[in-house]
Every structure is written in structure tokens, then in C-alpha cells.
Design goal:
With 95 residues, this protein is mainly α. It is built from 4 helices and no strands.
Length: 95
């Protein structure tokens, strides 16, 4: 009939118990198709969370790059127009 990887089943049950606070006996009472559907939905949720985490990490990296002190200082120096100052010239009297 069905071939079930027992090690994978136990691993998944432990994960569900830990993350979703469900007793193992509750999982054992489920129909197998309910269990399979639940595992499918958990995997979909995990993929969505990974995509969201990657998106947030990219935003953080972009923000961190723009907040680089060295680049901020150079941008500030470029944006400030310093008036050109020339030294006054004078001539020494000849004796």
C-alpha cells in the first residue's frame, strides 16, 4: 500500500509538536491525508517566511550601504560649496 519513511515521519512530528504545540497523540489520531495536507501547508508557510526574510535582509543591506559613514562624509563634503580663499598678497618694503 503506502510506503512511509519512519524517520521522516518522526522528524516531522517532532517539528509540529515543538513549533505548533500539538501533542504527538493528536497527530497520531489524524487521518494520513490530514497529516499530509498539514505538512504541505507548513512547507508553504516556511517558503513564504524565507522569501519575506530575504526581502527584509536585502532592504537592511541596502539601508546599511547607504548609511556608510565614509560615503556619507564624502557626500556631505561634495554637497558643501566651500568658498575659495586666496592669501592676501603684500610686498615688503625694500631698504
Amino acid at each position: 500500500m503506502y510506503k512511509i519513511d519512519l524517520a521522516n515521519l518522526v522528524k516531522n512530528k517532532l517539528y509540529i509538536c515543538k513549533e505548533y504545540h500539538i501533542q504527538p497523540s493528536e497527530i497520531d489520531r489524524m487521518y494520513f491525508y490530514d497529516y499530509e495536507t498539514m505538512m504541505f501547508e507548513i512547507k508553504n508557510i516556511q517558503l513564504e517566511q524565507e522569501k519575506e526574510n530575504e526581502k527584509q535582509q536585502k532592504q537592511y543591506d541596502d539601508m546599511h550601504k547607504s548609511m556608510n559613514p565614509g560615503s556619507m562624509m564624502s557626500q556631505a563634503m561634495n554637497s558643501i560649496k566651500m568658498p575659495s580663499v586666496s592669501m592676501p598678497s603684500f610686498s615688503m618694503p625694500k631698504f
